[in-house]
Design a protein that fits this description.
By secondary structure, the chain is an alpha+beta fold. The protein has two helices and five strands; from the N terminus they run αβββαββ. The protein has one domain: Trna Endonuclease, Chain: A, domain 1 (3-Layer(aba) Sandwich). About 30% of the residues lie in helices and about 40% in strands. Strands 1-2-3-4-5 form a five-stranded mixed sheet, sandwiched between helices.
């Protein structure tokens, strides 16, 4: 696959947005930066606010894309989501969840396998 990891990630995020929209998610924000890290996509799925982590791979040599959302990353995402909710008061009293969009692209970027994993993980008790 041509390009670097940043370009591959951006291409993956574009595909993730298309897949989410096709699944009737409403995109609220993209690449929202917080002191805890970046939230790839914030979306609405019905009445639920969804924090979406996009993981893109070009092969399965190192495992499935969703397997790379390890405990440390999940904790950072939860902290970033908490920060987002505190900053955006309009989402008080709304249900939230964390989804992962796992993408495997071939070398030519002409095709890909995209999986939306709803409720991929839950925050720990400190949430």
């Amino acid at each position: 696959m041509a390009g670097n990891a940043i370009e591959r990630g951006a291409a993956g995020e574009e595909r993730a947005v298309r897949a989410l929209k096709k699944s009737r998610y409403k995109i609220v924000e993209r690449n929202f930066r917080t002191p805890a890290g970046e939230i790839d996509i914030v979306a609405r799925d019905g009445n639920c606010l969804v924090f979406v982590e996009v993981r893109t791979r070009t092969s399965l040599e190192f495992g499935l894309p969703q397997e790379s959302v390890i405990a440390r990353k999940r904790k950072r995402l939860c902290t970033a989501a908490r920060w987002y909710l505190q900053k955006k008061k309009k989402f008080d009293d709304v249900a939230c969840r964390f989804d992962v969009v796992a993408i495997v692209m071939n070398d030519e970027e002409k095709s890909s396998h995209i999986e939306i994993i709803k409720d991929a993980f839950r925050p720990d008790r400190s949430w």
